[in-house]
């Protein structure tokens, strides 16, 4: 059975300024006054209540609004365990993906940029609503990255986090 707001508020309290949940009852291994939850393998806070695990950022909406969100919940600053309400927003899958950090298997060092061997150029592409759009081919990965950044800012608006230029790879 899925938890409801009434039951949630019986067992834990939510602090809007820190984004933390704290147990208000003791039970089994849980101690009253102790911070609730632990990080999962993806960096999200998970809280086990009545034998079922929940993502804390989804519990925030249940706690404050009385129901779970129907859509995705995005962390504005990209920090998966920062569950302050001001850092959470509803998003669709495309918007949430726009706020992702660079993938670990990326070889160019830039989002949306890859080397296209047949032409000997760097290509910029972007995925919007599960469709890949070709942006252009460029002589350097930096040029391709600038094109990607402009297109991403246009396509995703506030959900797109511009890369930190100081974090760009050095060649």
Describe what this molecule looks like in 3D:
- The chain folds into two domains: 5-91, Homing Intron 3 (I-Ppo) Encoded Endonuclease, Chain A; 94-164, GCC-box Binding Domain, CATH 3.30.730.
- The strands form four sheets. It has a three-stranded antiparallel beta sheet with strand order 3-4-5.
- By secondary structure, it is an alpha+beta fold.
- It has helices at residues 5-11, 56-65, 93-98, 141-156, and strands at residues 12-15, 20-23, 38-39, 45-49, 52-55, 72-75, 88-91, 113-116, 121-128, 131-138.
- Helices cover 23% and strands 27% of the residues.
- It starts with a helix and ends in a 15-residue tail after the last helix.
In CATH, what is the class of the largest domain? Alpha Beta
* Uncertain segments: 165-171
Number of helices in the DSSP assignment: 4
Q: Proportion of β residues?
A: 25-35%
What's the CATH architecture name of the largest domain? Answer: Alpha-Beta Complex
As for the number of domains, it is 2
The main β sheet shows up as:
3 strands, antiparallel
Distance between the termini: 54 Å
CATH topology of the largest domain: Homing Intron 3 (I-Ppo) Encoded Endonuclease, Chain A
- Which structural class best describes the helix and strand composition? alpha+beta
Our Rg estimate from Cα atoms comes to 20 Å
Q: Based on Cα principal axes, name the global outline.
A: elongated
How many beta-strand elements?
10
Instruction: Specify the helix fraction band.
Output: 10-25%
On the 0 to 100 scale, the average pLDDT is 88
Question: How do the strands of the widest beta sheet line up side by side?
Answer: 3-4-5
Could you state the order of secondary-structure elements as H and E?
A: HEEEEEHEEHEEEH
């Amino acid at each position: 059975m899925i938890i409801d707001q009434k039951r949630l508020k019986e067992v834990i309290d939510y602090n809007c300024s820190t984004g933390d949940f704290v147990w208000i009852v003791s039970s089994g291994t849980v101690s009253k006054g102790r911070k609730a939850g632990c990080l999962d393998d993806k960096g999200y806070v998970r809280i086990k209540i009545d034998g079922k695990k929940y993502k804390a950022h989804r519990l925030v909406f249940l706690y404050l609004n009385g129901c779970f969100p129907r859509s995705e919940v995005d962390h504005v600053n990209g920090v998966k365990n920062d569950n302050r309400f001001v850092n959470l927003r509803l998003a669709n899958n495309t918007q949430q993906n726009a706020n992702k950090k660079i993938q670990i298997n990326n070889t160019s060092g830039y989002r949306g940029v890859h080397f296209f061997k047949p032409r000997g150029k760097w290509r910029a592409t972007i995925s919007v609503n599960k469709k890949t759009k070709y942006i252009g081919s460029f002589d350097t990965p930096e040029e391709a990255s600038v094109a990607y950044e402009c297109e991403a800012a246009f396509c995703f608006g506030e959900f797109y986090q511009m890369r930190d230029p100081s974090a760009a790879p050095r060649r």
